[in-house]
Amino acid sequence: MTREPKQDRSRATRLRLLESTIDCLAELGWAATTVGVVAERAGVSRGATQHHFPTREDLITAALDFMFDSRMERARKETPDVPPGSARTEAVVSRLVEQYTGNLFNAALQVWTAAAADPALRERLLPLEERFGRVAHKEAVEQLGADDSDPVVHRMVQATLDLARGLGLADVLTDDSARRREIVRHWAAQLDTVLEDARSRRAADPLAR
Amino acid sequence: MTREPKQDRSRATRLRLLESTIDCLAELGWAATTVGVVAERAGVSRGATQHHFPTREDLITAALDFMFDSRMERARKETPDVPPGSARTEAVVSRLVEQYTGNLFNAALQVWTAAAADPALRERLLPLEERFGRVAHKEAVEQLGADDSDPVVHRMVQATLDLARGLGLADVLTDDSARRREIVRHWAAQLDTVLEDARSRRAADPLAR
User: Fold this and answer.
1) What is the interface pTM, i.e. ipTM, of the complex?
2) CB contact under 8 A, B29 and A118
3) Domains of chain A, with CATH numbers?
4) I need a surface site. Which of A112, B59, B72, B164 has the fewest CB within 10 A?
5) Region of residue A109 (phi > 0: left; psi between -120 and 50: alpha; otherwise: beta)
6) Position A2 confidence tier, pLDDT thresholds 50, 70, 90
7) Are residues A189 and A91 in contact, defined by beta-carbon separation less than 8 angstroms?
8) Is the Cβ of A114 closer than 8 Å to some Cβ of chain B?
């Protein structure tokens, strides 16, 4: 009977460390985010921290992994309850772009930028980057109700994610939200035309694929 | 008669320091780019370096400023010699996107990311960011032969620059050039439709603006 609560406590400790890592990275930057600072902020002993994450790299990659997964899970739950079409496209693009702002993006940016000048860290991040890109694309396709087998649609969904990343970067130093809303509105209209054209092509030739 | 060569030498020293700063930032990262490292790499004494740039921040912001200006100057010289239309749009978007990869982008990314967790550095960078954004937009409009007074065109040119920034970020850890070429091709086609529509609107109602 003591097993379950102990596991729960351990899970809660782990979670506090991961969240503290993201906050430290976003607020203090890469260099200042040491295991000691993260542990203190989470109110977890150094010993318990090292039990969960033997190295700084373990802690940081686990934090990115965990936060990406929570974000994707939340996105799936919040899929707009409207049929595919311009309103849905705009709602999805807007939510997707907002995911590339705030603490998680800033934390990831700290790690990615450090990796640009650190080959060992880069090797470690590549599988994460590959997985994040793949899952984010699949999620965007599903939420847009898009036909990803259409090559134009495939590239334009990719471009939407690249645009979201660029808008995230533009928001790092200043609050860019007003301009971002306008960009989202105009791009969503363009993207919706692409999705609509693909739907018409498929309707005209349903056996094409 | 000794004045001119001395000025030339001083200018050449300054230039070597600025180029060395960009290379150090891109290769070694923010923390490792100290005045000492930059000076040694440029083969310039500490005294001469401090004469040109009293602080590390002076050196780094001057380096970003200088490299941005050289890049813009080069871009102006290389404006494609084709009339506005789909070929020109693709050539301009492609070149624009390539400007957001490589050493200068990586160097700027190091500084921007450090500023995200450093309010004093952020204050210092804001006027640079504002100027870079404004000049890059104006340059893109001219090279595309676009009518920036058209609100859809204005936003889509902005989105193109945001996309370029996002593609630059995607290229930091891995060589993303093959995928990027495809995105550029599809995005340019989309942008060209927007530019073409704006041209038709203006032709149909030349007094509208």
Assistant:
1) 0.92
2) yes
3) 3-204 (1.10.357.10)
4) B72
5) alpha
6) low
7) no
8) yes
Q: Does A112 touch chain B (CB under 8 A)?
A: yes
**Cβ atoms < 10 Å from Cβ of A208:** 9
Distance in angstroms (rounded) separating the CA atoms of residues B35 and B33 = 7
pLDDT confidence band for A183 (50 / 70 / 90): very high
3-state secondary structure of A83: coil
Cross-chain CB nearest to A163 (options B26, B162, B174)? B162
Using DSSP's 3-state secondary structure scheme, residue A147 falls into coil
**Amino acid sitting at position B3:** R
Q: Are B51 and B95 in contact (CB under 8 A)?
A: no
Res A75: pLDDT: 82
Strands (E) across chain B are located at: none
Closest residue in chain A to residue B128, using alpha carbons only: A173
Question: What is chain A's length?
Answer: 209
Is B22 exposed, middle or buried (CB count within 10 Å of its CB: 0-12, 13-18, 19+)?
buried
Partner B, chain A 22-41, Cβ-Cβ below 8 Å: 26-32
Output the six-digit token pair for B39: 């000076």
Shortest CB distance from A116 goes to which of B106, B158, B185? B106
Contact: B164, A169; criterion CB under 8 Å: no
Task: Report yes or no: B30 and B110 within 8 Å, Cβ to Cβ.
Answer: yes
